[in-house]
Amino acid sequence: MLSHNLGYPRIGSQRELKRASEKFWAGKIDRDELQKVARKIRHENWSTQKAAGIGLIPSNDFSLYDQVLDISLMVGAVPERYHQLIDGKSNKELELYYAMARGYQRGDHDIKAMEMTKWFDTNYHYLVPEFTKDQQFRRYSDKVLIEFEDALQKEILTKPVLLGPITYLLLGKEKEEGFDKIDLLENLLPVYISVLQELAARGAEWIQLDEPALVLDLSAKQKKAFESAYAEIRNAVPTLKLLVTTYFGGLGDNVNTAAGLPVNALHIDLTRGAESLSALLDHKGFVESARKLSLGIVDGRNIWKNDYSKSLAFIAQAANVLGKDRLLIAPSSSLLHSPCDLELELDETVLTLDIKNWMSFAKQKLSEVTEIARLAEIDWVTDPAFIANQNAIESRRNSTLIHKQEVKNRLSQVTESDFSRESAFTERQQIQLEKLKLPMFPSTTIGSFPQTDEVRLLRANLKKNVLTQEEYEIRIREEIVSSLRWQEELGIDVLVHGEFERNDMVEYFGESLSGFVFTQNGWVQSYGSRCVKPPVIYGDVERPEAMTVKWSAFAQANSEKLVKGMLTGPVTILQWSFVRDDQPRKDTAFQIALAIRDEVVDLEKAGIKVIQIDEPAIREGLPLRKADWSAYLKWAVDAFRLSAAGVADQTQIHTHMCYSEFNDIIDSIAAMDADVITIETSRSQMELLDAFANFNYPNEIGPGVYDIHSPRVPTVDEMVLLLEKALKVIPARNLWVNPDCGLKTRKWPETGAALRNMILAGNLLRERYR
């Protein structure tokens, strides 16, 4: 039974790509050295997959920044503002690529980065393609060909991976009115076909075309586009074996479209859309065709060991109808979303052997795929590998580490009154205006300040026992006081303590909550060089003791201005962790919400008058099908309200969300009832505010006036213009001035310059509206 993989982590097992990319951007290495690191990671990935016994190994799943941006460059979908960087020289391609991803500010050039948003319902971010009515496409980058040839030189015939043309268009954004982006298919297909034809000429046998849009709600026109596009592709490359992959959900009402595509194989995700298997096995046209079915049975997005008995049952179900020769075995999706290698977790004080035995990272998932494929061909019941797997599954199911009756009891006692503040927002706003005495257009930042090498070294030295806890805390207090004085000098109205003691906005809290465990090297890519190390929620969650009160109270005691308490919300902690799969996600979210509620109440008792509960992942957690939205939004909003509703009216609750399209869920955003919401709007030029305007959003809003994900420093005039746009849809007394996200990943010089401009912009507005 043929095994294959959809994609592999590209950051390197030691985050080599992150380090090389950041050195390149800083001018510390040249492009040749960067490409050398990239090539080494690719070669190691191919060798790892070959050693695991994977039959079809992917190429072009590697990316220096983002796979969607790679396609935009491949097809020449370069927005006009970047054309000044195109001079026909190949050595300019990398400069153009990073300018599109990160912005470009050099000499006379000052170019904004492309918009970035979440990849379906994951925590990975992609660069949003930009389309115009007369959009033209042309072959520009040959990356897919170069990487295919690179593998051939290593004597590995790979399966090149491309984001499919329909999904690529649907992920993009029309930058002007009067056209439907799907109508660009006619212009786009010739470029795709030319790439496929050249791959075929160079010896490619299988091509993987990722079309996860097939798990979304599609219009009749979009379904028709799938049919016409793949008919044209099939005719143009009749000898290529085409594999269309779907993932992150089930096919639903798209089953006829997917089953009828003229391709050689169709991949389905059985971890998030198991119903697709029965639908295809009941589909007469698919069953009677010669198409192969790829079963995505190993979870590409979580870290729990596969239950072989369930996977083998899926295989038996499919083989009974199609026969084993028509089946392929694979992970559910690309392993991009999994950490690289569980073998790197060597410290049993960080990750105990009991819990480690329940886990599987990308490298181990490869072995699971090939092991399952082997077991499916034999009488597996008495096989040692199967028995060992079932022992591990049973060990987790019955572990006393997981269940805490007192946590379950507290959750069962939650009542409706626990979800609501004392008064409605209009009353709270008046009380807060009197108590907090903030000016018009109050300014703040989202929470974190640059994590310098010195700050990171402090945490590292504490872990290595180079610093004592007391020495460490003295240094952190110095950083906090320094940042407070700096903010006061700038004229920021609501200060933050800078979060110098925090490694990651989710990991930091998970380290203080029961039911969480951590890894040393469980890094996954969030975007570009940004990597995160998600906590693992393995059991019932509670807060043994206060998590942030000491630092927030210290900061407030050292400034006469308001200092925000900074917390991460329950849905975001849930979404940005690897979550237990033995109970509903709602129950885990409510357990976390009660723990955060305890912290909010303690912050208020400590004299903190403004508390921010970040929920950037609310929109990200939205199910891909609209029919499933209401149930999720109900418990997600309730989780936030449960965390925030324990304080008095005079305590101002903020929340923060980034990279979210709010139009379809604005009523749920309002139902969260945060006093102030800060959001990302700078990359979209305040487009996101249309949702708040059309809904007549009642509470206060801080639309981010500059993009912190780019090193570019925006001008004062630019930020004033964005604020004036905001004032067209937001009442003046409800408008805040802030960046679009935390400043942790930025450097101090650019942070200082950007925040000074931001304060000047806010002051100009105050003068005009005095």
Descriptive overview:
The protein is α/β, with parallel strands linked by helices. Helix content is about 40%, strand content about 15%. It is built from 28 helices and 25 strands. The strands form 7 sheets. It has an 8-stranded parallel β-sheet with strand order 1-14-13-12-11-10-8-2. A 6-stranded parallel β-sheet has the order 15-20-22-23-24-25. A 3-stranded mixed β-sheet has the order 16-19-21. Strand 3 and strand 4 (about 110) form a beta hairpin. Helix 1 packs antiparallel against helix 2. The chain is globular and about 75 Å long.
Summarize the structure.
The chain has 770 residues and is α/β, with parallel strands linked by helices.
Strand order of the largest sheet: 1-14-13-12-11-10-8-2
Q: What is the arithmetic mean of pLDDT?
A: 94
Number of helices: 28
Report the helical percentage.
Answer: 40-55%
User: Strand fraction band?
Assistant: 5-15%
Shape: globular
Distance between the amino and carboxyl termini:
74 Å
Number of strands: 25
Largest sheet: 8 strands, parallel
The rounded Rg comes to 26 Å
Unreliable parts: none
* Structural class computed from helices and strand pairing: alpha/beta
Salient structural properties:
single chain, 770 residues, six-stranded parallel beta sheet, 25 strands
Task: Record the SSE blueprint.
Layout: E1 2-3, H1 16-25, H2 31-52, E2 58-59, H3 67-74, H4 93-102, E3 104-106, E4 109-111, E5 116-118, E6 125-127, E7 130-131, H5 143-153, E8 159-163, H6 165-171, E9 173-174, H7 185-201, E10 206-210, H8 220-236, E11 241-245, H9 255-259, E12 265-269, H10 275-281, H11 284-288, E13 292-298, H12 308-322, E14 327-331, H13 353-356, H14 362-375, H15 384-397, H16 405-412, H17 425-436, H18 453-463, H19 469-490, E15 494-495, H20 507-510, E16 514-517, E17 524-527, E18 530-532, E19 536-542, H21 549-557, E20 562-568, H22 570-575, E21 578-579, H23 585-605, E22 610-614, H24 629-644, E23 652-657, H25 666-671, E24 676-679, H26 689-695, E25 700-703, H27 716-727, H28 748-768
Parallel strand pairs: 1-14, 2-8, 7-9, 8-10, 10-11, 11-12, 12-13, 13-14, 15-20, 19-21, 20-22, 22-23, 23-24, 24-25
Antiparallel strand pairs: 3-4, 5-6, 16-19, 17-18
Helix pairs in contact: 1-2, 7-8, 18-19, 23-24, 27-28
